[in-house]
Amino acid sequence: MQTGRPYPIGPQVDARGANFALFSAHAEKVELCLFDDHGRRELERIALPENTDGVWHGYLPGAYAGLLYGYRVYGPYAPLEGHRFNPNKLLIDPYARELVGSFHIGDLHFGYRVGGPRGDLALDRRDNARVMPKCRLVDDSFSWGDDRRLRRPLSDTVIYEMHISGFTRSRPDIPEHLRGTVAALRSQAVIDHFRRLGVTAVEFLPVHAWVDDRHLVERNLRNYWGYNSIGFFAPDPRYLNGSSHAEFKHTIAALHAAGIEVILDVVYNHTAEGNELGPTLCFRGIDNASYYWLSPDSPRHCLDFTGCGNSLRLSHPRVLQMVIDSLRYWVEVMHVDGFRFDLASTLARGPQGFENNAPFFDVIAQDPVLAQVKLIAEPWDLGEGGYRVGGFPPGWSEWNDRYRDTMRRYWRGDGGIIGEVARRLAASADIYNHDQRRPSASINFITAHDGFTLQDLVSYNEKHNEANGENNKDGNNDNNSWNCGAEGPTGDESVIRLRQQQRRNLLATLLLSQGVPMLLAGDEVGNSQGGNNNVYCQDNETGWIDWSGRNVPGQDLTEFVARLIALRRGCGLAHEHFLQGKIRNPTGRKDIAWYRADGQEMTEPDWHFPDARLLAFAIDGTPAPALILLNAHFETLMTTVPSAEGITRWRIEIDTTEPTGTRKGTLTPGARFELPARALLMMLGETGPDTASER
Question: Measured between alpha carbons, how far is 285 from 427 in angstroms, rounded to an integer?
């Protein structure tokens, strides 16, 4: 072992050997442990010979891509002081590119004697190397050909949120041996589905290596979603059909070739090691006091802003460096196009709480690579002051839960909220129109992985999470859902038709709103989770997408969604700047105008009618304006067609009362017509001689 170099941190393979560098500010010694090709036998332990500014490093001549290794880190086991070093526990490298083996969290993985009389104060001296996954050195070289980032503007983006495994497990048109892996996503059937829908980006639930929680394994369940990361550079082995992370590169290249960007859902707010009573797998044994937020009054205990037991301390420069290095790795080496940050408020926490000018924001803003990718925040965590919707800096987009809740309430039939609905339809300027932010700051969604699917949203009043083994206490109780008259599956045709119409209403609202729409995979084919709104532990038919609704009239809305996306894009309905109700040149029309049932523009008192459920507005687009009418009332309403400068007729494009969601016909300005109950109509303006109108 030669001295090597402290930078870059992590393993670096070259033609002669490999450099190893590991940060630990409080360690007294670090050993590199080498294993046989199967990872079963520890061959040698070699001390890293040098420490430079807290980075332990060494160069091993003859090391090669494929070599299996891990670390043992020596230092004080002093939980009362925040230190939990235990060289009896093999640790994975935080910078490992590949992991070999699976985590089975048993007593051997805990740094203290589980069940002992002194709790976590007593050191466990049993060795866990035999049952611990191993790190593998990799050669990152890959022939990308002409692949490059697509750089699609956010204003032209439609996101499709999906679970890699759940999306493919039950699809009959995917080879069985590929189902559940990332390789399945480059099959022609999947690519064709994305292109048929018209989505421009897929957002993968976490792909970083994760650990199944012990309490789930004991109930014969697993952490299906993967929000329990332990390796921020390594793809989880369960997603690989073979053993190489290059499978992700092949799939990303195939998606790019189809015009589809890749966004990763990343979990840097906590790790799989849990609270102070959790296992010692990586960070806890490397330098617990540096990597985690600990209680200043009792360093024995973790601070938990995430609800997951611990919180990663990005206010420490080396921890922040690791996160930035991980992000850059996935952009530069793996070619992803952006990130969605889980519980992102935690990443900007300092000693006094959430910081608008946190180092995390500043580092990304000046980074020549990361400043150019899509950055999406889940803008909250569970700590004090953690709800920060609208509080992220320019360059960031945010999941807009106020959009979700408002649109669910509106189509459920709640009255008196049309002002709120209008603000959400127009990209929530009341939340985001500051600091030069744009409508694309609002990521609009009706459903996401966390909660009801669209089919369940219109089929259940209550959650049904009994299968999770927590007495139906987990998951959100406030879903703003409506079962349309029957709880769960029903043979009542009138209820079934209403549910299908409500699905069309919600999808049309989402895709015709300003901001960036995000669809949940499977909603287009009526996927149901049986009323379970928290399938994080259901790696089975409950959590997997049920594709049986494909090609079933009324149930399969793929063509309807595709039509909406095509209209959104082709008619220039998604504006890059906030709409202000001002006249645009040269059309002479307002960029957005709101109308009453009599076809006249809204006045201030009209917004405050307590039972209002009708909303009509026109958006000036290219080459013509669009007129959208929404009626969430249970009754048909008599309505007058509004007028717009230069428009002689309105051509009907979307009618959610139709099973296909589309209808032919025209309406003339000033005409009176009946707007059906619980319906949305979208029309495009036309100029020229008037023709006979019809409804």
Answer: 45
Cβ burial, residue 393 (10 Å; 0-12/13-18/19+): middle
Comparing CA positions, the residue from 242, 241, 283 lying closest to residue 111 is 283
Q: Please state, in angstroms and rounded to a whole number, the distance separating the CA atoms of residues 93 and 85.
A: 15
CA dist., res. 403 & res. 447, Å (int): 11
Cis peptide before 625 (omega within 30 of 0): no
Which backbone phi and psi does 69 adopt, to 5 degrees?
-155, 170
- % residues pLDDT > 70 (the chain): 99
Structure tokens at 477: 């109780």
Could you tell me how many residues make up the chain? 695
Residues labelled catalytic: 342, 378
- Report whether 525 contacts 549 (CB < 8 A): yes
Distance (Å, rounded) from C-alpha 138 to C-alpha 334? 13
Q: Is the model's pLDDT at 559 over the cut of 50?
A: yes
Burial class from Cβ neighbours inside 10 Å (0-12, 13-18, 19+) for residue 647 reads buried
Helix axes 493-511, 558-570, angle to 10 degrees: 20
Burial class (CB in 10 A: 0-12, 13-18, 19+), 142: middle
Residue 392 φ/ψ, nearest 5 degrees = -90, 160
Tell me: the pLDDT tens digits for 30-48? Answer: 999 999 999 999 999 999 9
CB 144 within 8 Å of CB 249 = yes
Q: Which amino acid is at 571?
A: C
**CA 669/CA 535 separation, integer angstroms:** 48
Please give the DSSP secondary-structure letter assigned to residue 424: H
232-291: per-residue pLDDT in tens? 999 999 999 877 889 999 999 999 999 999 999 999 999 999 999 999 999 999 999 999
3-state SS, residue 20: strand
Residue 476 tokens, joined: 């959100």
DSSP 388: -
486-507 in b/e form (b: 16+ CB < 10 A) is: beeeeeeeebbebbbbbbbbbb
- In DSSP notation, 250-294 reads HHHHHHHHTT-EEEEEE--S--TT-STTS--SSHHHHHHHHHB-B
Go through the domains of the chain in sequence order and give each one's CATH number: 592-686 (2.60.40.1180)
Overall pTM surpassing 0.90 (yes/no):
yes
For residues 353 and 389, is the Cβ–Cβ distance under 8 A? no
- CB neighbour list of residue 683: distance below 8 Å, 6 or more residues apart: 626, 627, 628, 650, 651, 652, 653, 667
Q: From CA 663, how far away is CA 372, in angstroms rounded? A: 41
**Interacting residues of 298 by C-beta distance below 8 A, sequence separation 6+:** none
Name which of 304, 250, 248, 249 is nearest 276 in CA terms: 304
